[in-house]
Structure formats: C-alpha cells, structure tokens
C-alpha cells in the first residue's frame, strides 16, 4: 500500500524538477518495471554517452530495494557484462546499505556518481578494476571506446 | 639583601620575587629576541621548578633537564633558561619590513580600484572587500544582461597583482594582470565577443520560449538546456560557445522507444541544418515538431521529495487515513514516520522486538529509534 503512493510521489517530484542528465518513467504504465536513462557525467570517459537502464520495483518497495541494471554496455569495474551493478545502496542491510529514504532518483544519482568515481576495491570485473588502478590511461581509453560504440547512437 | 637580587633586577627587570610561607616564587616575563615568555618559577633549596606554559612546550625536554640540576640562585637558573630559549627560538620575523610593503600594495590596490571606477563610470555595481582581498564587479552589456566577475588581489609578491578567479562566462579562462583596468578590459572584451553575445541571444530566446527544466536558474555560464518536448520526454541540448550556429549536441531523455524515434528523425534531418538561420527555428525543423511546448503558467513551489511532516518512508502524509505518528528522537533529524511504515522497515531488518516495541536505526539519521507495534498489524 505504501508502494503505490510513494512511486507516484517520486514520479511527480521527478517530473517537476529532474536532476541533471537523469530520466526515469514506468514502462507501459505498470508500476513494476521502470525504464531510465542517464547522461554520462562530465569529466569522465563516459561524458558523451547516453546510458539506458531498467529498474524492477519489488512488491515490497520501499522495504526492499529496486533492482537496477544497465541495458547499455559499459566498461566499468563495478558493472558486469550483463549490466549488473555493484553498489551497496541497492543491496539490503546488513550486506548492503539500502534505506527506504533513498528513492529511485537517489539511486540513479548514485549510479551517475559511480560512473564518475569507480570503486576498484569492490569490483565486479576484476581485470577492469586492476587496469583502472594500474593503467588508468588505458582504462579511460577503453571506457571511452565502449561509450562511443554502445552509448552514442545519436548523431 | 642577597647579592643576586640586584643582578636579578638588572638582568630580568620583569621578574618579581614573592615569598610565601612554604617557598620562594619568581614570576613575570623574560624577553628573548622580541618574544615574551611567561615565567613562574618555584624554588626549593637549590632546585628550581618552572611551570610549563604553551609557549614553553617545545622546549619541555631541555627544561626538564634543568629541574634536575642545582643552582645557586634564580639568576643562574634564568641565565641557563635564556640560553635554551634563545638557541631554539626561531629567528624572529622582521615584521616591520613586511608591513611597509603591504601598505604600499594596499595603496596601489585602492588607487587602481578608484581609477577603474572613474574610468568605467558605467559599471553597474562594484564592491571591494574590507580586507582589500577581493573585488566584485557587475557589468551590463548592450542587451542589458548582467555579467559578474570576481577578482582576487594577490599579496604574495609572486605573480601578478590581480587575478580573475570567477566569472560567469562559459569559457572560464584564468586571467591575471598587474593593472586592474587592463584586466577588467580583458574581461569586457570577452563579454562583448560577438560569438558569446550571439550565444547569449540564442539561450535567452530558448529560456523565453521553451520550457526549460534544467538548469533550474540558468546562469550565463551554463551552455546546456534541458527542454521539455512532450509529456515525459525532454532533450538536453549543449552548445559549443565557440560555435553556436552549428548543430549543437543533442541527447533525448525519455521512453527508450521515443528516444529511438527522435534519434532517427535527427539523423534524417541533421544534414539540412542551416547555420545562417535562427537556431531555434532550425531546431524546430530538425525535430519535425510544430513548436516547443511553453512553460506552464502556474509556477509551483519547488516540490521536495518529502515535505515537512510527511512520512519519509511512504513519502506521504496520509496512509490509510492515518497521519505520521512517530518522530525520530534525534533533534537534528526529527523526521516523521507512520508507525506502520517504520515498523515494517525495522522488522524487515530483523530488528530487536521487546514487548510492545521494536528498536532499530532511524532510516534517515541511523540513530536509535523506537516504534510501538502498530494497531493495524
């Protein structure tokens, strides 16, 4: 019962004042699948990209965190080949840090920040994390290459 | 009168002797290379004990050694102490020279500032801080647009005297010069640069005729606009300040299939972009739309995700006609919750139940919070 009221509120707030470079909306007017997009943060190898994501809202939301994955391929230590994201905020405590006061908007902002500041200490892609630490130039080159290839389908 | 007393008076005139029933005390100041040290010395036969103060802390080791030695009289002790303090004391800064230098800089800064005001009598607003370290100037351009610049004064003797640290232009190049007027002229030349003026014209036009949702209050520095195209669909358009007439970078944010459609429209039309035409009408042609939706009339207050008094779990005031009934006891948090919501959250964390209460962490501030079992559960 909290779920519906809350999602409507989150959507109306978002529509009036969206955060920079972030968009989300329910897919096909059902409130269990959302689609989202975010523009890569400035001063990062992802800055030219537009990344698509899918958000599944559990029945028990906001008591359980939503699951979020990237639909666009991303070269990043904390994002795997299937678009799964390693972020403590989308895991339930005690392993994670989800709290019902975080909304969808907050999570997307956190993901945007994760793109800007990868966390090589808790990697999902060990080899990318190693590259990020030891050869940042090469990491940035590849991340940019993937971004140009997969996340820039407009002109 | 013991022999040392005259010596004490001559050598350490700021030290006084005080006799109590128990022991002798010497207190006052000694001056070493311009620094004053507060002294409080207690005598017990041939041993002297110095009370430690903040100034003396760094000499503590040596002073401790002194307390183990025996001295004939306080003058002998103070001589030894002076030796320690003057050896360790860092060479005293010759403050006088620096003060003279700074005054001349202050004079120059004030002179430059007055000259600037006289030379540019049409400056809209200007302000120099009391410490003469920063100068803020607001100027109007021909279109009556305001442009502000913040200039720092550099007192370090290295580098130029004046430096632009902040200005609301898109290309924030750092500029510095020894003359305020020359520096200000550089800034004005950038403001009046035809490319930038053209960009301001275009952006003003967009702000006037489109529904811009980001930035919230655009400044002259922002070169991007997020414009509403349709319900739930917007586009982020980023201009190149050096070349506003050419096709700007466009990204659509919205349902993935709508974005796909618009990307197709753009890739069909972008070759027809005419850099000699009005940017806004070229955008309309590019997107194959009739016009941009206008901003809705009623300007609502900024909506927050959670308003005061609303439950910060379900983000609403009424839940099954109930109002929030738990408040976080942490005074700097003070968030409201419905007991139903808070209970459900704490239970999902396996928090500790104790009779009719459940205890856990406030989801907002993480401090301890209690919640009684809701009646409806």
Automatic annotation (TrEMBL), chain A:
It comes from the Eukaryota. One of its GO terms (molecular function) is ubiquitin conjugating enzyme activity. Residues 2-152 form the UBC core domain. SUPFAM superfamilies: UBC-like. The active site is at 86 (glycyl thioester intermediate). Keywords: ATP-binding, Nucleotide-binding, Transferase, Ubl conjugation pathway. Gene3D superfamilies: Ubiquitin Conjugating Enzyme. Its EC number is 2.3.2.23. Belongs to the ubiquitin-conjugating enzyme family. This is Ubiquitin-conjugating enzyme E2 T. It comes from Popillia japonica. The lineage of its organism: Eukaryota, Metazoa, Ecdysozoa, Arthropoda, Hexapoda.
TrEMBL record, chain B:
PROSITE patterns: ZF_RING_2. GO terms for molecular function: ubiquitin protein ligase activity; zinc ion binding. Signal peptide: none annotated. It comes from the Eukaryota. InterPro entries: Fancl, FANCL_C, FANCL_d3, FANCL_d3_sf, Znf_RING, Znf_RING/FYVE/PHD. Transmembrane segments: none annotated. Keywords: Metal-binding, Zinc, Zinc-finger. Residues 311-366 form the RING-type domain. GO terms for biological process: interstrand cross-link repair; protein monoubiquitination. One of its GO terms (cellular component) is Fanconi anaemia nuclear complex. This is FANCL UBC-like domain 3. It comes from Popillia japonica (Japanese beetle).
């Amino acid at each position: 019962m909290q779920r519906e009221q809350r999602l409507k509120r989150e959507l109306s707030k978002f529509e009036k004042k969206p955060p920079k470079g972030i968009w989300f909306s329910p897919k096909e007017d059902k409130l269990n699948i959302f689609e989202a997009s975010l523009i890569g943060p400035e001063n990062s190898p992802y800055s030219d990209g537009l990344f698509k994501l899918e958000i599944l809202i559990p029945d028990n939301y906001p008591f359980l965190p939503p699951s979020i994955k990237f639909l666009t391929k991303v070269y990043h230590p904390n994002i795997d080949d299937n678009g799964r994201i390693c972020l403590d905020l989308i895991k339930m405590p005690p392993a994670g840090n989800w709290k019902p006061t975080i909304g969808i908007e907050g999570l997307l902002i956190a993901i945007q920040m994760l793109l800007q500041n990868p966390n090589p200490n808790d990697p999902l892609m060990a080899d990318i994390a190693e590259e990020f630490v030891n050869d940042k130039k090469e990491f940035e080159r590849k991340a940019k290459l993937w971004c140009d290839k997969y996340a820039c389908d407009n002109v | 009168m013991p022999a040392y007393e005259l010596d004490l008076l001559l050598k350490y005139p700021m030290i006084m002797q005080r006799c109590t029933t128990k022991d002798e005390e010497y207190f006052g100041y000694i001056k070493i290379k311009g620094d004053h040290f507060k002294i409080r010395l207690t005598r017990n036969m041939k041993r002297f004990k110095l009370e430690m103060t903040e100034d003396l802390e760094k000499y503590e080791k040596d002073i401790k050694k002194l307390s183990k030695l025996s001295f004939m009289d306080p003058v002998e002790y103070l001589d030894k102490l002076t030796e320690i303090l003057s050896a360790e004391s860092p060479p005293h800064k010759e403050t006088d020279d620096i003060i003279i230098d700074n005054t001349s800089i202050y004079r120059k800064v004030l002179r430059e500032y007055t000259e600037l005001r006289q030379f540019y009598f049409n400056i809209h607003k200007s302000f120099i801080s009391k410490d003469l370290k920063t100068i803020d100037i607001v100027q109007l351009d021909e279109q009556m647009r305001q442009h502000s610049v913040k200039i720092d004064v550099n007192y370090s003797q290295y580098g130029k005297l004046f430096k632009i640290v902040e200005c609301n232009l898109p290309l924030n190049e750092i500029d510095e010069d020894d003359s305020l007027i020359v520096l200000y002229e550089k800034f004005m030349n950038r403001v009046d640069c035809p490319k930038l003026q053209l960009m301001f014209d275009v952006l003003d036009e967009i702000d006037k005729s489109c529904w811009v949702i980001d930035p919230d209050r655009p400044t002259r520095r922002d070169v991007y606009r997020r414009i509403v195209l349709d319900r739930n669909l917007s586009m982020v358009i980023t201009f190149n300040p050096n070349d506003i007439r050419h096709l700007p970078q466009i990204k659509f944010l919205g349902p993935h299939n709508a974005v796909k459609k618009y990307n197709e429209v753009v890739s069909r039309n972008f070759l027809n972009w005419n850099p000699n035409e009005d940017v806004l009408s070229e955008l309309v042609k590019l997107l194959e739309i009739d016009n941009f939706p206008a901003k809705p009339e009623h300007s609502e207050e900024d909506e927050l995700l959670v308003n005061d008094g609303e439950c910060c779990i379900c983000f609403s005031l009424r839940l099954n006609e109930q109002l929030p009934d738990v408040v976080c006891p942490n005074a700097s948090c003070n968030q409201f919750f419905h007991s139903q919501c808070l209970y459900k959250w704490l239970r999902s964390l396996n928090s500790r139940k104790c009779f009719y209460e459940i205890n856990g962490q406030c989801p907002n501030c993480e401090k301890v919070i209690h919640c009684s079992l809701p009646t409806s559960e």
